[in-house]
Amino acid sequence: MPIPGTTSVEHALENAAAAEKALSAETLAACEALINSQTVRGNRYPVQARSQVDTEEIAP
Question: For residue 6, how many other CB atoms are within 10 A of its CB?
Fold first, then answer.
């Protein structure tokens, strides 16, 4: 499945190849510590822009 915004076939192939990689539990835990519900807050776009894009709301 290509990542939205992929701009070339080469990038799509690179993205698809990432599915073959496995992360250790230690690496996953480190990522979770950096990016979680405490560090990601608010809306991605201002109110006017949100009406023009398909986006999800994430409850706090």
Answer: 14
The answer to whether 2 and 15 have CB atoms below 8 angstroms apart is yes
- Answer for the pair 24, 5: CB distance below 8 angstroms, yes or no: no
**For the residues of 1-60, what is the DSSP string, one character each?**
-PPTT--SHHHHHHHHHGGG----HHHHHHHHHHSSTTT--S-SS-HHHHTTS-------
pTM here is 0.42
What are the pLDDT digits (tens) for 19-36? Answer: 898 999 999 999 888 887
Residue 46 φ/ψ, nearest 5 degrees = -65, 165
Q: Are 11 and 4 in contact (CB under 8 A)?
A: no
